[in-house]
Design a protein that fits this description.
single chain, mainly alpha, metal-binding, Globin/Proto, oxygen transport, Globin-1-like, oxygen carrier activity
Length: 128
Amino acid sequence: MGSGASRPTPRKRKAKKGPLPSPQPPKPLDPRLKLDAKEKFFLEKSWKTVARNEDVAAMAMFINLFRSSPEIKDKWPQLRKLSEDEMRDSPYLQKLSVRILGAMDHVIGPYGKQTITTPPSDIHVHFS
């Protein structure tokens, strides 16, 4: 501690000869994806932000959906007569929105792995 003798001596790097090798080309995208590499990258990165704040994002998604298309709210009898403020406090809507966002995560999340194993319809069929 404090003495120069206790510090490890820095290793000298060997000089590499010649130019760097060219990087490997990116893996081809899954042909089922209708996205190019840039769109896929932005989808993955923005989805990670949504997934980190799942509860808040799910509720905001539904509130905005019902605000822009009020007729959709009629699909859920428990939500038909609720105001926007009541919906924000609704445990039913909280649970529903997180479950649906979770289903979306099963579809969007695997884009990074380039595998889509479960169709969205199979995931969504269990929600009510």
